[in-house]
Design goal:
Layout (H helix, E strand, L loop, with lengths): L11 H8 L4 E5 L5 E4 L1 H7 L3 H4 L4 H4 L1 E2 L6 H7 L5 E8 L5 E10 L10 E7 L1 H8 L15 H14 L5 E4 L6 H10 L8 E5 L5 H9 L16 H4 L4 E5 L6 H13 L1 E2 L8 E2 L3 E6 L3 H6 L5 H7 L2 E4 L9 H17 L5 E2 L1 H9 L5 H15 L4 E2 L6 H19 L5 H10 L7 H15 L4 H8 L3 H10 L4
Parallel strand pairs: 7-12, 7-13, 8-9, 9-12, 14-15
Antiparallel strand pairs: 1-2, 1-6, 3-4, 4-5, 5-6, 10-11
Helix pairs in contact: 7-8, 14-16, 17-19, 18-19, 19-20, 20-21
Length: 468
């Protein structure tokens, strides 16, 4: 079939500008056909710009993240610029890692181009990343935020020593993953890694689990038990929730750190061990020391090296990365046909506070993947608690904005926003739009910016919900 040719082609000055950009650029028309390509994109794709003019973009820009065309349609609708990473297959069937940015474009009135696609070749960055020290050892830990990059850079330091490590961070931040990554990157990797939750067992049972016992040490001790420290011989033992360790066991742990030896429960024979100790806690150990609930000398022995895992709310950009990772993981394990998240679901997920951090995000995506029966996760597939918190945040913002609403338009909108709490995503979104309009005094352009949408997106939703 002969490709449709755009009615107008870019003038030479425009192409001079595009050819001067060190990334691949394609201009698409309203039918998502190639209007023009710069020289760099010709190099990346292996296609001649003149030969593919008028050809559908997905035949030239062959990559999985553009196949369904959602990012193109969003750009056509005047939505925001979107950036994704993935692989593109060029004319020689070679896979190239790229960062793709799609955005609406208005170069000149009457020009056929409606969408601009920019491809940045990141093959070299990927290669460097894969050979970065600690990359393989940190398997299971994801993130590209500055704070997580600090953790990845610290990993080799923690791994190339036998010093004790204290890992701090809120519940669900991945302290156990970091401890295991340190173990696998160390010289002890061929020996066991054993994790113990110090707050999960009563004192007597925990002592037996950690240090073992001899036959007859207590009622029910019918045989000798080696204990987890001896089972971790040569390797690493990770004591999570170390702040919950009872004071008597803190003394015994201090002895292990100082002498590399201990007495099993009920035994007069000392056992020597060669085990590295890593501890983790979500508590403030300094505060526990001041309260007399944690030994100061033990704190200093444990706090030789320290790593703090940031909460998810401080990991800028990592929520979307983790969302996609967990979705891919659960789609494969459950055999689902879910492609992605809807824009509304993304908004809800990225603005949620995540008190349970990465673990909570993982559970939410798993829940949504099980519930969803279609190809896209919508807000109604997410836990009700998320939508409740979202509504509380809307109400809080409404309270702040109410005092500054002076215009008649704002008063009218405020009355509508004061209606009972919404029970569906449509109602939630309507109320959020109303609050944004009230906050900006009815200025739709500023309200769109407040919501993180393009102006046409806001106007379309205002018409859809009958808010005009």
């Amino acid at each position: 079939m002969k490709p449709a040719v755009p009615t107008r082609l870019p003038r030479e000055p425009i192409m001079d500008v595009l050819n001067g950009i060190p990334h691949g650029i394609a201009l698409l028309d309203e039918g998502l056909r190639i209007v023009a390509m710069n020289r760099m994109l010709e190099i990346i794709t292996g296609y001649d710009a003149e030969a593919v003019r008028g050809v559908a973009a997905d035949y030239v820009l062959r990559c999985h993240f553009l196949e369904r065309g959602e990012v193109f349609q969003a750009a056509l609708a005047g939505g925001d610029m979107r950036t994704v990473e993935g692989d593109i297959i060029n004319a020689s069937r070679k896979k190239i890692a790229v960062r793709c940015t799609v955005s609406p474009v208005m170069i000149e009135a009457g020009l056929a181009a409606r969408v601009m696609v920019m491809l940045e070749d990141i093959s070299l960055l990927r290669a460097i990343e894969q050979h970065r020290p600690g990359h393989d050892e940190a398997k299971g830990m994801l993130g590209h935020s500055p704070k997580m990059r600090e953790i990845f850079e610290l990993l080799p330091v923690l791994s190339h020593t036998d010093a004790t490590v204290l890992i701090t961070g809120e519940t669900g931040t991945g302290k156990d993953l970091l401890a295991e990554a340190v173990h696998h990157a160390s010289k002890r990797a061929k020996y066991p890694f054993i994790k113990v939750n110090c707050g999960a067992l009563p004192e007597a049972l925990l002592e037996s689990e950690l240090f073992g016992h001899v036959r007859g040490a207590f009622t029910g001790a019918h045989a000798d038990k080696p204990g987890l420290f001896r089972l971790a011989q040569g390797g690493t033992i990770f004591l999570t929730e170390i702040g919950d360790l009872p004071l008597p066991l803190q003394v015994k742990l201090l002895t292990v750190l100082d002498d590399k030896a201990f007495f099993p429960l009920g035994s007069a024979k000392k056992v020597t061990v060669d085990t590295r100790i890593i501890t983790g806690t979500h508590r403030d150990l300094r505060q526990l020391v001041q309260e007399g609930r944690f030994r100061e000398d033990l704190f200093f022995r444990l706090n030789v090296l320290r790593a703090h895992l940031p909460p998810l709310r401080e990991r800028e950009g990592d929520v979307r990365l983790l969302m996609d990772h967990f979705l891919h993981q659960f789609v494969n394990s459950l055999g689902k046909n879910i492609k992605d998240f809807s824009r509304e679901a993304v908004t809800l997920l990225t603005r949620y506070s995540y008190p349970g951090n990465v673990r909570e995000l993982r559970n939410i995506v798993e829940y949504a993947t099980n519930i969803c029966q279609g190809e896209r996760i919508e807000p109604e597939h997410l836990p009700a608690s998320m939508q409740e918190e979202y509504m509380h945040e809307i109400d809080r913002q409404a309270g702040k904005a109410a005092g500054s609403a002076m215009a008649t338009e704002s008063d009218r909108i405020g009355q509508a926003a004061a209606q009972p709490a919404a029970s569906s995503w449509t109602e939630i979104e309507k109320k959020y739009i109303l609050q944004a309009l009230m906050k900006t005094g009815g200025n739709r352009t500023r309200a769109a910016k407040e919501l993180g949408w393009g102006r046409s997106t806001l106007w379309r939703k205002i018409t859809l919900y009958g808010l005009d």
